[in-house]
Write a structure and sequence with these properties.
It is a single chain. This protein is mainly alpha-helical and 300 residues long. The chain has one domain: ABC transporter involved in vitamin B12 uptake, BtuC (Orthogonal Bundle), CATH 1.10.3470. The longest helix is centred in the first third of the chain and has 31 residues.
Length: 300
């Protein structure tokens, strides 16, 4: 039973990280119908930014909590700037182009960012310091779940609630929903659609940066390729839950994370990806819109 609990918690942690990235995918798709394949690289850039800031602050004698806070802020700001730049350069000029054009642009931007970080940093794995302190109250259950895992779970839960409240109850959230439903009508009622799209990219990039910092701190290493792998898994989770749905992205991420964890624990780590993508294929066959997706959903 304890082994099952360990695998379940490991799956929740993995799923929580996928969720932070998948939310960016599902928000962008919900607004403009674009799969932003460069989103995984924004996650990777957030992790590298946090590493650089953490190393500099540690050399100057900053404490662990201060390093965590400042590295988080720096990673969020830098990744958000990258997300906005990618949107302005790669996607905005193709707003009215055939749908294949922005898709190709997204793939090209993903490859560009990967190689940019490869040349600017290194192809080797780099050690990432643990930025999350050990909490004393976690000592009795430290063999099951550690402090960094708890922070990941809590952070993902809080972000999901705040994002849901933002979308449902704020003016900018209503503008996002209006833009997603009918971009032309949103323009006619005075909504600045371009600004809403930019805000969506910035928000998704900020969430990816938080995910990059947390998972890198938890795992203890990063390299330039982590964005591609995590991005593909997060995209799978978003489709699994129902792309365009925020609760669906989170649910799909948790299901995918638990599936991979149990497959690794009870079968073999070699079949981790096989089980994950088999689950995706089954969902697409029997419920193409995803678990929480609407059958009549159409891109506007």
């Amino acid at each position: 039973m304890e082994y099952f609990l360990e695998l379940f918690l490991a799956g929740l942690i993995r799923g929580s990280i996928y969720a932070l990235i998948a939310l960016g995918y599902t928000m962008v798709y919900g607004i403009i119908g674009l799969i932003n394949f460069a989103h995984g690289e924004i996650y990777m850039i957030g992790a590298f930014t946090a590493l650089i800031i953490a190393n500099v602050l540690t050399l100057h004698g900053f404490g662990q909590i201060s390093v965590l806070i400042l590295a988080s802020i720096g990673a969020v700001i830098y990744s958000s700037a990258y997300g906005l730049t990618v949107e302005q350069l790669a996607y905005k000029p193709l707003r009215h182009a055939p749908r294949l054009s922005p898709l190709i642009s997204a793939i090209g931007m993903s490859i560009f960012l990967q190689n940019y970080v490869l040349l600017a940093q290194t192809s080797d794995f780099l050690p990432f310091p643990c930025l999350i302190p050990d909490f004393e109250f976690m000592a009795p259950v430290a063999h099951v779940i550690d402090s960094s895992a708890l922070v990941i779970l809590v952070t993902t839960s809080v972000i999901m609630v705040l994002l849901t409240l933002l979308i449902k109850f704020t003016r900018i959230g209503k503008a996002m929903r209006a833009t997603a439903q009918d971009r032309t009508m949103a323009l006619l009622v005075g909504i600045n659609v371009n600004r809403i799209i930019s805000v969506t990219f910035v928000t998704g990039s900020a969430l990816a940066a938080v995910g990059g910092l947390l998972i890198a701190s938890h795992v203890g290493q990063i390299n330039f390729h982590i964005g591609f792998i995590a991005g593909i898994k997060a995209f799978t989770a978003a489709v699994l839950g129902g792309i365009g749905s925020i609760p669906g992205a989170v649910l799909g991420s948790l299901i995918l994370g638990c599936t991979e964890s149990f497959a690794t624990g009870y079968v073999s780590s070699d079949y981790e990806d096989v089980f994950a993508f088999t689950l995706l294929v089954l969902i697409l066959i029997f419920r193409p819109a995803g678990i929480l997706g609407r059958k009549d959903a159409q891109k506007v």
